[in-house]
Amino acid sequence: MKPYDILAIGELNVDLILNRIDGQPEVGKEKFAEDMILTLGSSTAIFAANAAALGAKVGFVGMIGHDSFGDLIRESLRAKGVDTSMLIESDTLSSGATIILNYGEDRAMVTYQGAMATMSFADIDKSVFEQTRHIHISSIFLQPALNADLEKVLAYARSRGVTTSLDAQWDPAEKWEFDYARILPLVSVFLPNEKELMLLTSSATVDEAIEKIKPYVNTAVIKMGNKGSLLVCKEGEAVFLPSFLNREVVDAIGAGDSFNAGCISRFVKGEPLSECQRFGNLMGAINTTAAGGTGAFTDKAKIEAIARNKFNQFITL
Ligand SMILES: Nc1ncnc2c1ncn2[C@@H]1O[C@H](COP(=O)(O)OP(=O)(O)OP(=O)(O)O)[C@@H](O)[C@H]1O
Ligand SMILES: [Mg+2]
Taking a C-beta distance cutoff of 8 angstroms, is the pair 159, 31 a contact? Predict the structure, then answer.
């Protein structure tokens, strides 16, 4: 028995969110915000928290600074039931932070990447690969050092009999450098959204992108927003599964990460891929019923109740 079902390897940062600001920021001047929230950021953290809420044993491998933001990140993950003993603390770099200036629907953001940008394969204690059944890697373009070592990490996991999933997420630099022919054969479950898949493969359509990845992919589940998702396996046609449509979306922040948490929490249980896809769709839908990425995932009973009451799905976690 391994102590962890899933180790999440990804970015960690705090979000400092300023609301109700009296005008646009101007160099040399000062503005007031009437409201401020300091909270755990990072989409991989949403994945880890929600996979833990669904009952998986989850640990996090990420790099933070030796500072109070690092303490906040560690405590927030722990409060969500995620094991933080494998977090790496940098002696020289601060924890990452995103400053978000909120203006209604629009927001201006500045991110200091800090420690998360520097974590490489060499920083990761190799014994962690012996302690988990599965490794989930996310947000590679926010972690240049890890991205440079991506093939090494995945190949090492494979050599230890550990299955893997990858959600590359958005590339802020919009370069989309991704050697899918080398990387995808090492990934058990690839989890892009439609747009990212097209950009990662320089394709004009999703169909063209699927043709390109097909020779290399083991399994891909492609997220399609409120339409649902598409399951692509080595053999056979892609299988579209419509969403459990929520017409009263509170917000869709973290829907993709909740989809990943649902899909992978089933995958590590050895469930059929069609069931992993269905559970991903359901958790993506549940995510949209409450504010933020983790609002709907407070405890098992509440998740089961939302599945039953809003989507007529009877699940037991
Ligand atoms: N309005 C909705 N109703 C029901 N399900 C939804 C809705 N919006 C999203 N989903 C579900 O959530 C999944 C993931 O959403 P999406 O495609 O937006 O992922 P993403 O682009 O990776 O998101 P993120 O911005 O969180 O990274 C979808 O595949 C779908 O199953
Ligand atoms: Mg996403």
Answer: no
Predicted TM-score of the model (pTM): 0.95
Give domain limits for the chain: 4-9+43-87+115-311
Please tell me the number of the ligand nearest to residue 280's CA.
1
Residue 217: what pLDDT? 98
pLDDT, one tens digit per residue, over 87-110 is 999 999 999 999 999 997 788 999
Residue minimizing CA distance to atom 23 of ligand 1: 256
Structure tokens given for 18 = 């300023």
> 222 near 167, Cβ under 8 Å?
no
Q: Into which CATH architecture does domain 4-9+43-87+115-311 fall? A: 3-Layer(aba) Sandwich (3.40)
What is the position in ligand 1's atom list of the atom closest to the CA of 192? 22
Residue among 141, 171, 197, 259 to mutate when testing ligand 1 (max atoms within 8 A of CB): 259
